[in-house]
Specification:
58% helix; mainly alpha; 5-stranded mixed beta sheet; 4 domains
Length: 617
């Protein structure tokens, strides 16, 4: 066997092992048809699926892949500043052209965990002498509860966990191993950050905050013991940072500028209007956040990781390894990352807590606190790898190789059993077939530039998937999730009304709310409003059905007509004054119980409105 083959063999075996794990998780999707079924296509997964379709469409038609008014029409959406994982859509464009947006999305679910786990192996390999610890640590990182949650819900922007370990690897190389030249390390670091910015800025923010804090702590410790090494590493780090600008300036800087100042800029939780200012944060928040509790202080809830976030067995194993291998730099690094992540997740709300001040600073307060737990899993992976490697060294020299491997693997798996116990019940993937609205294609052909509204508005996820699969022959006035913040006060009032009508069992809308909805649709140049006659989702999934929406649209536009088995209201038939229903009549028409088809809702609504009008006269 050649030297090159010998070097590649462990990586290929490791990748094969990870692939087996992810195939076992996703086999229901694969057997259901990789192009026709996936995880939660009517929910959060619809956004990255739609992005796959839009980017492939834009690149093949010479359009802007970072902006589209095919959703949230006519305003449009900034894909770079959103949860679309547009960077992954660009990377998977060739697959989208062959398999379609759903097939490309399923390929992302298959491949990204493998790449994330291999990235953890790359980061840990220089620190240990054996492959087994690296492989187990990669399994913990790429398939831990945070990653599996992202897999189940289709959050590809948080499934891509390549950046934290690769940045750790580069920092380790600059500080200790020095196998890369400053030029190569800088260019590689700039590329890693640029790709992550395109895929998901929130994880980049979280990684930067936790990594910077851990780096400062490490430099303080290093400066107190090895001053000369600190100075040399600092000089090398400056050269690496300068070389990274060669990539960050031409690649990352334009993307960041497009996020901050491009069309429909700063619309999501990470990048909002308070990004660069203190004005959106009351000064009192720098004393106490006032929400939740979490500090090591008598009288407050202590910052103990919960079973939802971390495994009790894994915590115990981590503490044992930490005491046993305290002198290990890898163990200290892992424990530092864990503590920082936990305190940023749980400890930001206590009175005068230092993290309270940090949390309310610009940029930091824009990311969701519970997601800092993601980075903690990388700290656990570092500690587990160091402990497993040390355990192998501690075994008697006379033991056979097979016995040594069995003991090491068994000890490592013991820490992963509880993780699997916590994570696997939440990672049971139930494939869902792609279900669309059959009327959309026909309605899209009846207008020159059709803009449609579909139920549930503005959470129309399944319509986005259908639109992405039909080469964007029509535009949607809504989209999944409250990702875009635009419009006047009246617009926001109307969108809030639309969201309320799309969820749960709301009270009957007022005449003001109905007029606001009609005005919103008119200003957005909406042609038709579409809702299914039959149930939208299975009742056991807990989603709202189109009952409230159907009744409200009937009050505004009159009786619907049926196209391809779907109710359709033409916005040209808008009433001068929307009708209203009494609460009792609304409840009798709308609150349908059981699996029966709600075909009587429009007639019931109109009859009730006429009765109310007659009684008023």
């Amino acid at each position: 066997m050649s030297t090159r083959s010998a070097r590649l063999r462990p990586w290929l075996i490791s990748a094969g092992g990870y692939l087996v794990v992810v195939l076992a998780l996703l086999h229901p999707v694969i057997t259901s048809g990789i192009r026709h079924a996936t995880v939660w296509p009517e929910g959060d997964a619809s956004f990255p699926i739609w992005a796959n379709g839009w980017v492939a469409h834009a690149l093949s038609h010479g359009e802007n892949p970072f902006f589209s008014n095919a959703i949230w029409a006519p305003h449009g959406v900034n894909l770079a500043a959103n949860t679309t994982a547009v960077g992954l859509a660009i990377l998977f464009t060739p697959i989208t052209w062959v398999l379609g947006p759903v097939g490309a999305f399923n390929c992302q679910l298959l491949l990204i965990p493998v790449v994330s786990a291999l990235a953890a192996m790359v980061a840990i390999r220089p620190w240990v002498t054996r492959w087994w610890p690296c492989w187990i640590a990669g399994l913990l990182w790429g398939f831990g509860p945070s990653a599996l949650q992202a897999e189940v819900w289709g959050w590809t922007n948080f499934l891509y966990l390549v950046t934290p370990p690769l940045l750790f690897w580069l920092v380790s190389d600059v500080w200790r191993f020095r196998t890369l030249s400053p030029r190569r390390a800088g260019l590689l670091g700039g590329a890693i950050v640029s790709v992550q910015l395109l895929i998901g800025a929130e994880l980049l923010v979280i990684t930067t905050i936790v990594g910077s804090c851990a780096l400062v702590i490490g430099l303080v410790v290093l400066g107190s013991t090895h001053r000369d090494q600190l100075l040399e590493s600092a000089r090398r780090g400056v050269r690496v940072a300068l070389w990274s600008l060669c990539v960050l300036i031409p690649v990352a800087a334009p993307v960041a500028l497009y996020i901050a100042a491009g069309p429909q800029h700063l619309p999501n939780w990470v990048f909002n209007k308070g990004l660069f200012t203190f004005s959106s944060v009351p000064w009192a928040n720098f004393v106490a956040h006032g929400v939740d509790a979490g500090a090591f202080h008598w009288g407050w809830t202590p910052v103990y990781p919960s079973f939802q976030d971390f495994s009790a067995v894994l915590i115990a194993v981590t503490l044992v390894i930490g005491v046993w291998q305290w002198r290990s730099v890898l163990v200290r690094s892992g424990l530092t990352i864990i503590v920082l992540s936990v305190w940023l997740t749980r400890g930001y709300a206590a009175l005068f807590h230092p993290w309270t001040i940090l949390w309310n600073l610009p940029l930091i307060h824009n990311s969701l606190s519970n997601r800092y737990a993601i980075v903690a899993w990388f700290g656990f992976a570092l500690v587990l790898a160091a402990g497993t490697d040390a355990l192998a060294d501690a075994l008697p020299d006379g033991w056979p190789t097979v016995r040594r491997h069995v003991v090491v693997v068994a000890a490592s798996c013991a820490a992963l059993v509880q993780v699997a116990y916590v994570a696997l019940p939440a990672s049971v993937i139930v494939p869902q077939s792609i279900v669309g609205d059959p009327a959309l294609a026909q309605l899209g052909a009846t207008h020159a530039h059709p803009i449609l509204v579909t139920y549930p508005y503005p959470l129309s996820g399944r319509s986005m998937v259908q639109q992405a699969s039909s080469d964007f022959s029509y535009a949607l006035a809504g989209a999944w999730g409250p990702q875009v913040n635009f419009g006047t006060t009246l617009d926001r009032f109307a969108r809030a009304t639309a969201s309320q009508l799309s969820e749960g069992n709301p009270p009957p809308p007022t005449s003001r709310e109905l007029r606001a909805l009609a005005t919103l649709f008119a200003e957005d140049h909406v042609n038709d409003v579409v809702a299914p006659v039959t149930l939208t989702y299975p009742l056991n999934r807990g989603y709202a059905q189109p009952y409230s929406w159907v009744s409200a649209m009937t009050l505004i536009y009159g009786a619907p007509h049926v196209v391809k088995g779907e109710w359709v209201w033409s916005t040209a038939t808008r009433r001068a004054t929307p009708l209203v229903l009494s609460p009792a009549r609304w409840a009798s028409c709308v609150h349908v119980v059981g699996p029966r088809v709600p075909t009587s809702i429009p007639d019931c609504t109109l009859a009730g409105a006429e009765e109310r009008a007659s009684s008023a006269r």
